[in-house]
From TrEMBL, chain A:
Lineage: Bacteria, Bacillati, Bacillota, Bacilli, Bacillales
Annotated protein name in UniProt: Carbohydrate ABC transporter membrane protein 1, CUT1 family
PANTHER family reported in the protein's UniProt record: ABC TRANSPORTER PERMEASE PROTEIN, INNER MEMBRANE ABC TRANSPORTER PERMEASE PROTEIN YCJO
Organism: Paenibacillus macquariensis
Main location: membrane
Localization of this protein: Cell membrane
Keyword Phosphoprotein: no
Classification via InterPro entries: ABC_transporter_permease, MetI-like, MetI-like_sf
Automatic annotation (TrEMBL), chain B:
CDD domains: TM_PBP2
Entry's localization field: Cell membrane
Residues of the ABC transmembrane type-1 domain: 84-275
Keyword entries, A-Z: Cell membrane, Membrane, Transmembrane, Transmembrane helix, Transport
Protein name: Raffinose/stachyose/melibiose transport system permease protein
Transmembrane stretches, start-end: 21-45, 84-108, 120-140, 152-175, 196-221, 254-275
Similarity field: Belongs to the binding-protein-dependent transport system permease family.
Membrane topology: Multi-pass membrane protein
Keyword Electron transport among UniProt keywords: no
Gene source species: Paenibacillus macquariensis
PANTHER family: ABC TRANSPORTER PERMEASE PROTEIN MG189-RELATED-RELATED, SN-GLYCEROL-3-PHOSPHATE TRANSPORT SYSTEM PERMEASE PROTEIN UGPE
Predominant location: membrane
């Protein structure tokens, strides 16, 4: 159309401005800051690769990385796993489908902070929900947020929060499988569990891949669950909370930025790795 | 005759399989999971109507004689109402900007042909790899220098930028499916590009705009990390930052904590129940794949 050039520029400008000022520029600025030793915003000294060398010898960072990876493992196995199982089941039943869809999505719309606070009330040693149940059953109380349990205790709300989201994605993918596939399978005598492993799952493999990638990048960003439930104490520090403490609590912007860059690199590597391992061909019906 | 017989056959099959053991097992598992999503919410609301000592000692009992003491504390002492308003203004503002700017960009990317389109898409996808952690320090610096930290803009601007990619990709995905004839008819009627956007593309793409606004609102409303850094002063604090404050300051007041959680969660849940159809529609249209 005539005069389109003008409109292209005008319509794209606000987005370009927002992205440049609040995403691209800050990202490169973080990269730049990662080569400086800083004191507040105004006092900084170029130190070359010093911050990156510090990364390799920072044992707290190593621990945070391991905790993040452990959390990621729980998320991939349980969050994605439970979502898949629930989706297969809902896809196979004929009644109350709508009810389960609505109800399973509840935690997704609730803020992570509220869920975390809820779990603080569950885990409380003296008066929490879990220990009240144990006490009612005549069992001994458990210290849920002890050094050995705390990370698993944080993993539970993290997993629970997003199961519903992946569940809906899976269910949507399954609803796109044409019915003839199932009818053909029926003629071949394939049903029940076999139908799931031989038909449904292979057909939605590309969606499983997308979900696993989302789960990986999602667990790199975990923050509020750890922050509210345990403040990173008792072996629960993850990269998100560690970065926050270094960069914003200690106001060490240089090293904090280095940690952020490390998180980006690690996230990209893991996502690429997952995509490599789960290589599958796109299916169109 | 043949089809009729077939039909009866399948009906009978469905009936018998409905009562099979496997199906029963599935319903049991699904019901069990739905209890994990419903019961905690009930527990929290129920306990919000008890005094703290009852929350601690009798958390399972029904609040048959509800007390409102926690609610009055929440509104009078920690001013949760103010945080509500803050949250609404900031998340509402973010949604508005994201829809407008994302919608315009999506319109250009989906309906115009020009050379820079591919590089722009690549740049957009690249932003998906940048988490908030990697931008927070310089953004904080910008906000301090411009005096926007601890103002509503201090959260609206970065969150708008953070959600634009998602919005643009989803809306553009929807707009590419709109028939070309519609555009041509509008052109013949003398519409310019802006009028075309307002009168045709925006109304026709309403489902995409609706689902984007829901998700952007949720993500903005629930974003603790940005709130803690950019707007953590009492006068502008959104509700998630207040919750975090409550957990560290009033960690022993169980009744108040339960009430704060209930007050944060229930309005969102009620709205969700009304619009859950849109959410699923948004997801169904391949939204998240972007």
């Amino acid at each position: 159309m005539k005069g389109d050039r003008k409109y292209i520029l005008i319509f794209l400008f606000p987005m370009a401005a927002f992205m440049s000022i609040f995403l691209y520029y800050p990202f490169f600025k973080s990269l730049y800051l990662s080569f400086f030793r800083t004191k507040g915003f105004f006092d900084k000294k170029f130190v070359g690769w010093d911050n990156y060398e510090r990364l390799t010898s920072d044992s707290l960072l190593g621990a945070s990385t391991l905790h993040t990876l452990e959390l990621m493992l729980y998320v991939i196995i349980f969050q994605v796993g439970i979502a898949l199982v629930l989706a297969v089941m809902v896809d196979n039943i004929s009644k109350f489908q709508g009810f389960f869809r609505t109800v399973f999505f509840f935690p997704v719309v609730i803020s992570g902070t509220a869920i975390s606070l809820l779990f603080v009330l569950f885990y409380n040693y003296n008066f929490g929900l879990l220990n009240s149940i144990l006490a009612n059953l005549g069992l001994e109380k458990v210290l849920w947020l002890s050094e050995s349990n705390a990370l698993k205790a944080v993993a539970v709300p993290t997993v629970w929060h997003y199961v519903g989201f992946y569940f809906v994605l899976f269910l949507t993918a399954m609803s796109k499988i044409p019915n003839d596939y199932y009818e053909a399978a029926k003629l071949e005598g394939i049903k029940g569990f076999q139908k799931m492993t031989k038909l449904t799952i292979p057909l939605i493999l590309s969606d499983i891949k997308v979900v696993i990638t989302l789960a990986i990048t999602g667990s790199m960003k975990v923050f509020e669950f750890v922050w509210v439930v345990s403040r990173g104490k008792n072996n629960t520090e993850v990269l998100g909370t560690y970065m926050y403490k270094k960069a914003l609590v200690d106001q060490n912007f240089g090293y904090g930025s280095t940690i952020a860059i490390y998180m980006v690199v690690l996230g990209v590597i893991l996502a690429l790795l997952a995509n490599r391992l789960l290589k599958s061909e796109e299916i169109t019906y | 005759m043949q089809p009729v017989i077939n039909n009866e056959h399948t009906i009978r099959r469905v009936k018998t399989s409905r009562f099979s053991l496997g199906t029963l097992f599935m319903y049991i598992v699904l019901t069990a999971w739905s209890l994990t999503t419903i019961y905690p919410l009930f527990w929290i609301v129920n306990n919000s109507f008890k005094v703290s000592s009852d929350v601690m000692n009798k958390s399972f009992s029904l609040a048959l004689e509800p007390v409102l003491v926690n609610y009055t504390t929440a509104f009078d002492r920690i001013n949760i109402g103010k945080s509500y308003i803050n949250s609404l203004i900031m998340s509402g503002g973010t949604v508005l900007f994201v829809l407008l700017f994302g919608g315009l960009a999506a319109y250009v990317l989906s309906r115009f042909t020009f050379k820079a389109k591919r590089p722009i898409y690549s740049l957009l996808y690249a932003t998906l790899l940048i988490p908030a952690f990697a931008t927070v320090v310089p953004v904080y610096e910008i906000l301090i220098k411009t005096g926007l930290v601890n103002t509503y803009w201090g959260l609206i601007l970065p969150q708008t930028a953070g959600n634009l990619t998602f919005a643009t990709l989803v809306i553009a995905g929807y707009m590419t499916t709109i028939a070309k004839e519609l555009e041509e008819a509008a052109f013949i009627d003398g519409c310019n590009r802006w009028q075309m956007f307002v009168k045709i593309f925006f109304p026709v793409s309403r489902p995409a705009f609706a689902s984007v606004s829901i998700f952007v609102f949720l993500w903005s409303y629930n974003d603790l990390f940005s709130a803690l850094i950019f707007v953590n002063k009492e006068s502008v604090r959104p509700i998630v930052a207040l919750l975090n404050e409550i957990s560290s300051q009033y960690g022993t007041d169980f009744g108040l904590m339960a009430t704060a959680v209930a007050l944060t969660v229930i309005p969102v849940l009620i709205i969700y129940l009304f619009i859950s159809k849109f959410i699923e529609k948004g997801l169904t249209e391949g939204a998240i794949k972007g």
